[in-house]
């Protein structure tokens, strides 16, 4: 059976791509942010994932307002990045894992999640930048990916409760995946930020720290917040927390925190990183 090794949750601000391209990691503005990542690299070297299932939100590259699925699962052999207009270089394509994608799709639909299945899918900065932060160097990616895009663009957005349930269903499917793969779950976005309107630049550190704390042992606590609660507490784009909550939902075992970092601001965003290890429970492995 496959093994879920853990989850990593990370912010995905486009300016990070510019800092990487220009080699600014050691500059005073960027150093506190990039310094959060070496412990994640060390853990990844131990956890040795073969494949990453990535919960993220597409910002208008692959889906736009004309057609916007609530949840979409990639089933492509390869995922390319493309210019979104941020002025950052595109990254190398990612290898997909169509067999795992179709297993997830079958399992999610059987579990009554009416997802959209995508045999072609461009991936935007919300997928590429966390990958570039976790595996720096711009070399060949050491993992295959299965991207799961969540609607964070056009209201009504999926609730945190539903996002957590999606993650739970993904976790059950991964536990039932008959392979020797070691699977990493990634959730990207957040933490508090608002990019436009009267509250542009809004950040809520106490709320963010409460969320990071709850992510470890009490993720259900976060599912009690409605989408509008999150907009109020974490800003309009703070709703990206949905991908963190989905990733946490996919951890089916005993969860321990390996590492976290939090830094304000990068651009308009309060940035967070968490590394959560998953110890599979015997019951899940036998299922
Ligand atoms: C910023 C943050 C995001 O999450 C995003 O998708 C785009 C921009 C920002 O703070 O600049
Ligand atoms: Fe975003």
Number of strands: 10
* CATH C-level category: Alpha Beta
Helix content: 25-40%
Intertermini distance: 9 Å
SSE order in H/E notation? EHHHEEEEHEHEHEHHHHEEH
The major beta sheet can be summarized as: 8 strands, mixed
Shape descriptor reads globular
CATH architecture: 3-Layer(aba) Sandwich
Radius of gyration: 17 Å
Query: Spatial order of the strands in the main sheet?
Result: 6-3-7-2-8-1-10-9
- What structural class do you assign from the helix and strand content? alpha/beta
Question: What fraction strand?
Answer: 15-25%
The CATH homologous superfamily corresponds to LigB-like
- The CATH topology is Protocatechuate 4,5-dioxygenase, Chain B
Runs in which pLDDT lies below 50 for 5 or more consecutive residues are none
Structure annotation, total helices: 11
Could you give the topology of this structure?
Blueprint (H helix, E strand, L loop, with lengths): L2 E8 L4 H7 L9 H4 L3 H10 L3 E6 L14 E4 L3 E2 L14 E2 L2 H13 L5 E3 L6 H10 L9 E7 L9 H16 L6 E7 L16 H13 L1 H4 L4 H8 L6 H9 L4 E13 L2 E11 L2 H5 L1
Helix pairs in contact: 4-6, 6-10
Bound molecules: 3,4-dihydroxybenzoic acid and fe (iii) ion.
């Amino acid at each position: 059976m496959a093994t879920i090794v853990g989850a990593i949750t990370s912010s995905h601000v486009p300016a990070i791509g510019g800092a990487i391209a220009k080699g600014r990691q050691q500059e005073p503005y960027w150093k506190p942010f990039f310094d959060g990542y070496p412990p994640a690299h060390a853990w990844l070297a131990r956890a040795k994932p073969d494949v990453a299932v990535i919960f993220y939100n597409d910002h208008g590259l692959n889906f736009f307002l004309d057609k916007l699925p609530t949840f979409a699962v990639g089933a492509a052999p390869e995922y390319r990045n493309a210019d979104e207009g941020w002025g950052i270089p595109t990254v190398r394509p990612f290898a997909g894992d169509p067999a795992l994608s179709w297993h997830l799709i079958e399992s999610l639909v059987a579990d009554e999640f009416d997802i959209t299945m995508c045999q072609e899918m461009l991936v935007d900065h919300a997928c590429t930048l966390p990958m570039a932060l976790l595996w720096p160097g711009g070399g060949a990616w050491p993992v295959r990916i299965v991207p799961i895009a969540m609607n964070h663009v056009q209201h009504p957005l999926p609730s945190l409760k539903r996002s957590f349930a999606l993650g739970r269903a993904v976790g059950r499917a991964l536990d039932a995946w008959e392979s020797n793969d070691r699977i990493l779950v990634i959730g990207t976005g957040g933490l508090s930020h608002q990019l436009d309107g009267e509250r542009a630049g809004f950040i809520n550190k106490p709320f963010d720290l409460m969320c990071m704390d709850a992510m470890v042992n009490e993720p259900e606590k976060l599912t009690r917040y409605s989408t509008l609660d999150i907009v109020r507490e974490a800003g309009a784009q703070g709703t990206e927390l949905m991908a963190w909550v989905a990733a946490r939902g996919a951890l089916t075992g005993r969860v321990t925190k390996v590492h976290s970092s939090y830094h304000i601001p990068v651009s308009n965003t309060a940035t967070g990183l968490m590394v959560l290890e998953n110890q599979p429970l015997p019951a899940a492995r036998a299922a």
